[in-house]
Write a structure and sequence with these properties.
Blueprint: H1 2-21, H2 32-35, H3 45-49, H4 87-102, H5 105-118, H6 123-135, H7 139-152, H8 157-173, H9 177-188
Helix pairs in contact: 4-5, 5-6, 6-7, 6-8, 7-8, 8-9
């Protein structure tokens, strides 16, 4: 009897571990001041009782003034994001694309997730992963991955446009016509 109860529990625990390994960790940011190793001052009775002064925020830098005749909606020129240079990522994305063309989305998804673990900030990996989730009809996850990809594609107008168009398609499939319209408007900006 104990064996019959523990077997499904064991399978569910394995599935939970597998699924938790497929998620991405949140990105944390440390300011340059926090990340530096600054030697501490020796404590004296006078300094031990006083509180350290809070850090003052950096003064904002002035934005460049646009040339005469330009409109405020002109987008600044941006550089294209570098293509993945890691041969393992390139191979995994290539394999995933072949699996997608064959219709084996689960195999494609596993290859892309492996590429994501190797290159966790590559927008091309996120686009392909979002597209795979979309084709698997997991629209909620496809939207989450695409939105994360948008954040990693900053500075690359072509990638931004691709992500927003994919988001419009995803939102259409979920019946969110207002969200799809917003996504198309965002894509038109690029």
């Amino acid at each position: 009897m104990l064996n019959n109860v523990s077997k499904p529990f064991f399978i569910m625990a394995l599935m939970a571990m597998f699924l938790s390994a497929c998620t991405t960790a949140p990105v944390t940011y440390k300011s340059p001041v926090e990340s530096r190793d600054v030697p501490s001052r020796p404590q004296t009775p006078e300094t031990a009782q006083t509180r350290p002064e809070p850090l003052q925020p950096a003064t904002p830098q002035a934005l460049p003034v646009p040339p005469p005749g330009s409109t405020s909606t002109d987008l600044p020129a941006t550089q294209r994001a570098a293509t993945p240079s890691n041969p393992a990522v390139l191979a995994l994305l290539s394999d995933a694309e072949k699996y997608q063309q064959q219709g084996d989305m689960a195999a494609a998804q596993s290859r892309i997730q492996r590429a994501q673990r190797i290159a966790p900030r590559d927008p091309k990996v996120y686009y392909q992963l979002a597209q795979t989730h979309y084709e698997l009809e997991d629209y909620r996850l496809a939207e989450q991955v695409a939105l994360k990809g948008v954040s990693y594609a900053q500075g690359n107008n072509a990638e931004q446009k691709r992500f927003w168009l994919l988001l419009a398609d995803i939102r259409n499939k979920t019946g969110d016509s207002a969200g799809a319209k917003t996504a198309r408007e965002q894509a038109a900006r690029y």
